[in-house]
Structures
1.
Amino acid sequence: MPGQADHQAHFDEVIARHDRIEPRDWMPDAYRRTLVRQIAQHAHSEIIGMQPEGNWISRAPSLRRKAILLAKVQDEAGHGLYLYSAAETLGVSRDDLVAMLLSGKQKYSSIFNYPTLSYADVGTIGWLVDGAAICNQVPLCRTSYGPYGRAMIRICKEESFHQRQGYELLMTMMRGTPEQRDMVQESVNRFWWPSLMMFGPPDESSPNTERSMAWGIKRNSNDDLRQKFVDMTVPQAQALGVSLPDPSLTWNADRGQHDFGQPDWDELFAVIRGDGPCNTQRLAHRRRAHEDGAWVREAASAFAAQEEPGHG
Amino acid sequence: MNDDLFGGDSSQWAFGTDFEDPLAGVDTTMVDDVVADDLALYCLGLADDALIMSQRLSEWCSRAPEMEDDVALANLALDLLGQARLLLARAAAASPSVVPVLPEGSPVPPEDALAFFRSAGQFRNVRLAEVPGGDFAHVIVRLLLFSVARRELLERLRGSRDQVLAAVAARGVKEVSYHRDWSARWFLVLARGTGESRRRLISALDELWPYQAELVRCGAVDLALADAGVGVDPTTYAGAVDAVLGEVFATSGVERPSRGPLAGVGGRLGRDGVHTEALSLLLAEMQVVARAHPRGRW
């Protein structure tokens, strides 16, 4: 039987050649814990992320937009489902993970603790928030853990549809009335900085980044991805005809990249601490849905037990 | 839009909504021996049933007992929304006089004008669709009563002389068959699951049963269109609806409720534009953004 050292050597070799670790492979406990934390946080984000946009389904201003938004929020539930499945391959149950979300032991993306205040926010979330999510997630398609990487490939394809629908909504609104154009600009002003915060704190104050990169769980640093997002978004904003609310945003020809200002990191830490505009509301909604559904889940289990062969 | 920014095929961006034209290849000319306003009103009735049901179902988004149910409920809402959109467009094509007049130059398409700019008294849905939601048992009972009747209707409407109605029915019957089976399965689970689930199911059934008869009531418009081979007289499938519900009740060990049909107001029901108090509230929410921007582009 191979010993611990052999296992570790094999694991290191797989990581070194950028290959995948699979559920039945040996892996260090800390690698497993890091993955469970990251995948669960991602799954929770999809499920909590249904709320800010779901807020506008009942008020969508055209039948077509209502269908697009419903389909999008439905996709998020689907993403949550396959991410929880990916986490389950690491030996945790979905029920346990959901319990950790509801008790506040595990986090979800802070962006969803911001409110959606106009229909333009549906577009801005698609364009900026899903755009930032894609920048974060595309490298994860090559992440070292197989089930996570494969789930991400599917999710990224759908997220790129989401980003396009968001951008297309904003583009259409910009061709509408002056009030609609103001609504788009106001929405972009509110979501710009929180979108930049989605990449996490600056590299020098991101304690987990280095180890996650060494293990091939994470492939790029927070600051690299943030830069990439800004460079991608500036021309899109110009094509749309909106400004981005950062006076220090300029093209730096020497670097071949944009210079830009820093988000208010104190605000990010306040949101992470639980003091964001919607933290309490989002978790309370999730807890209420879970509690309201308890009798249904109990009924389904009781019925399934009756259906089992040999019963009665 | 500037497609270079994203690349790819711009017809594909609206995920799940614009991939295919459900009426591609369908003959859209009107049957010439039908009163245009009758056809429009008939389409509005079927459209409004689907639209208001869809609105109520979508209220469950992010609130379902399990994530799988969240996905399923959104699917049902999307199916009905799709039916509503086609039927509203058909109503407008049959008789533009039913479409609310918007400010000159408004880009709002007629199906959206019908959905977002009519007041409650102009809606023709059955009252079952609009009553405020309750718990999950309420969703299941409402959907069962609604989809059993709608499935029988759509099955017969496939033979309509109006090719658009026939096409909507052919597509819709598959969707609504699934809605019926999904809700019937849940009805059985809740009836036989626990004492609590059975109590809640029967309570929802008692509340909603009086609205059921309206689904199979025949009005003057139904009769006129049935005579012309364009619509279906609901009394022709009332027996089939009754049989399906009887089977679901028997399998689930639930007695058929004894309460009679809910009265109308001066004999007028939902199809006649007389609704419950809930509809104008539902519409106030549904229409608020569209009405604030009658010249808006979305």
2.
Amino acid sequence: MISLDLTSALPEVFLACAAMVLLMLGVFRRAGSTRLVLVLTVVVLAVALLLIVFSPDDRALAFNGLFVTDNFTAYMKVLVLLGAALTIGMSLGYIEREQMDRFEFPVLMLFATLGMLAMVSANDLISLYLGLELQSLSLYVITAFRRDSVRSSEAGLKYFVLGALSSGMLLYGSSMVYGFAGSTNFEALAEVLAADLAFGRAPSLGLIVGLVFLLAGLAFKVSAVPFHMWTPDVYEGAPTPVTAFLASAPKVAAMALIVRVMVGPFGDLFEQWQQIVVVISIGSMVLGAFAAINQTNIKRLMAYSSIGHMGYVLVGLAAGTEAGVLGIVVYLAIYLIMNIGTFACILCMSQEGRMVERIEDLKGLGKSNPLMALALTILMFSMAGIPPLAGFFGKYFVFLAAIKAGLYALAVIGVLASVVGAFYYVRIVKLMYFEEPAEVLDRPIGAVLRLMITGTSLAMVLFLLVAGPVVGGAGAAAAALFAG
Amino acid sequence: MILQALAFYLFAFVAVASGVMVIASRNPVHSVLFLILAFFNGAGLFVLMGAEFLAMILVLVYVGAVAVLFLFVVMMLDINYVEMRKGFLQYLPVGGLIGLILLVELTFVAGAWVAAPAAVASIPIAPPEQVHNTRALGNVIYTDYIYLFQAAGLVLLVAMVGAIVLTLRQREGVRRQSIARQIGRKRGDSIELKDVPRGSGV
């Protein structure tokens, strides 16, 4: 029996306690505590980040094997915390301007982040589900946070209903897996499947049905194609900082979860899940590329863009190799930074103090604010995957893994989809530089946002300088997943 | 032994019958009362299985709190149930067909299903002869699965915070209870003693 070891779960325990303390702080200080709580939330996330960076690297189990930490979880948690801290940090100006500055906002985001960490570290189907629910429930609430706005409430309700449906599918799949394999623990599941394989028995049909439902539920959370319907509406309706949050950290956490579940316990069912992953990957890439062309709202555009990006990430999973997982990890790291930079730009889009979100409103930005236009150009080119910007390397690693695994058709479709996708990214650049504005965007923009935009666009340009540690860390993370 | 079997059939029969009555009765208040009856019989079944703690909890929590809450809700919401059932016959063929298909499918599944040997072995609860109920439950909830228990607690906390955030509105002009003011009241603030001369009225 494994002892109750709290040290490896220290960052999570710290976050949970800090979230409750911040909740109390907000309740007792009442009005005007939002700014304080929000700043403290970012500090708490930074401390948790340090705790993870300085935690030991070797694989450790805690809470009777329900919770696992290794290089893979450490890398993913760093990404999640980084994404959460940056998006929460840049939401301050927006929530104060739009009068939605209630202290629960950062606290709920903190709980969502805690749920994501629990997802990344899950080593059991039950802890997977609870982490997912903690994250999703907080996200439903902050999506509907502007309760006086019909669009925000509608987005929250839609997200909630469809999210509940996907949770139901996930639970149904989990119960099938439990019934046919006899355990919910990832290691025990892997043992059962390995034993089946060793004796030359075909894995039981019920287990495969369970796996399909499990994958469907998880694919909903990363909005891969047949389960993507909610994404554009929710992204459009949610307040912009919430959209930024939704598009960054939860995607990383859910993808980490899919990778761990598929490669870890179900590694021996590779042939079964590979087909599904290939189909949803192609679907996401193609839909992400074509459906985004006609969009007029930049948040909807980003929704389709994120669907497409998740398709590229799934290419790495379809390869099912260590190189594929390395590609996924690098892609997610780059996607996170790229996305945060783009949303920082979207948060700057206001005309005479009111927020605008049409793509048309970016017209003439090249003249009115050349630096921001330059940064957005870099980010868009990086999204499109044009070398030598960071976005190119993400795609390079996943496609390389796919080709090495012999998935030529998938890689070719991926490259073609990214060519189509480049069209709408470049269209934004064209609007900024070659069209006359009807009304210019406000200046100046806040210091925090300016810092974010500068930092992320510099990271895109100078990726080659930091590529060593990023890819090296990703290699260690991928190796940790394939060690057991 | 025969007494136990008799008790089992009694509890089981009444539980199923009251379960049917919950959906069949026209008056929603009767439905809730039948639900309470079903809970009581469920508790009886638990006692027969040696799970006395669960039986007590079922009575205390479900009958004492949940069912009474239901009763309140049913009595306070004025819903016309006859109106709601209007389309019943219209949808019966399709619904019945789907139900039938599901039933057939479930039979197939049940026929093909073999319980994985590990599933039975992995049930982490000690037999009731060795460890008494509360202790076994405590071990499962607070030791083996403490992480899940705490995580579930956090999920509930988030649900509560979310419900408050999305619905609570600060209204103006509401008379709130101020306990400090209530306690700080003096006798002289609200009572005035009048010395009324005899025979003259106030």
